[in-house]
Inverse folding.
């Protein structure tokens, strides 16, 4: 993973976050893009919104009152054993729109989890998550990993639907799996295996090719 560089797609670029200094460099802007403020980028305009329900409800942390709180939370994720977060930027304006992570990287067992994923409302319901997932899965399978995992709160219907749209196969629910923000969480598990990947990759590539940019001028 140490040699992994930025992965440039058609609409998004995913860049490994390897230091706290890198987090500090984009924390202010990405916090602004996810804290409920009015947003404008190119032709995209978002009125003020409930950041908890639209971005942070099912995340382990957030919403964040300050960029320092936001940055601290991401630094804790970066420091987790077997974790590598990626900054997701849209390619039209080169602006940060979200984060996606490799978690629980287990080289001995050739498995990686994709998680701690969030996007600004500027990028939600766009091609951003589809292409980001395509790029991260493609890179992992290229490196020889054989199993990619997606986990989410069983009540997070948006995430469960997204997993299935992206080709992940449901494996069941682990009840009372975590306590998140003081509440019990049942966790829904999904996976893609290396033998399934070629067909799924073609489907995701076709979907990306038919999509519009995340943000237009």
């Amino acid at each position: 993973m140490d040699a992994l560089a930025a992965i440039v797609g058609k609409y998004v670029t995913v860049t490994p976050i390897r230091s706290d200094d890198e987090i500090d460099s984009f924390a202010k802007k990405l916090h602004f893009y996810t804290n409920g403020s009015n947003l404008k980028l190119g032709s995209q305009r978002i009125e003020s919104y409930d950041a908890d329900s639209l971005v942070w409800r099912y995340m382990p942390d957030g919403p964040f009152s300050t960029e320092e709180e936001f940055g601290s939370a991401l630094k804790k994720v970066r420091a987790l054993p077997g974790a590598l977060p990626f900054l997701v930027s849209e390619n039209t304006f080169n602006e940060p729109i979200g984060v996606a992570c490799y978690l629980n990287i287990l080289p001995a067992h050739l498995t990686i989890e994709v998680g701690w994923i969030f996007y600004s409302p500027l990028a939600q319901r766009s091609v951003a998550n589809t292409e980001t997932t395509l790029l991260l899965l493609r890179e992992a399978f290229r490196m020889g990993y054989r199993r990619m995992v997606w986990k989410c709160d069983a009540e997070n219907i948006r995430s469960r639907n997204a997993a299935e749209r992206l080709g992940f196969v449901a494996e069941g629910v682990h009840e009372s799996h975590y306590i998140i923000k003081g509440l019990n969480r049942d966790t829904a598990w999904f996976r893609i295996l290396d033998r399934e990947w070629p067909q799924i990759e073609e489907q995701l590539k076709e979907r990306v090719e038919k999509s519009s940019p995340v943000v237009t001028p």
Notes: The helical segments are 20-32, 51-56, 67-78, 128-142, 157-165, 197-209. The chain has a mean pLDDT of 97.
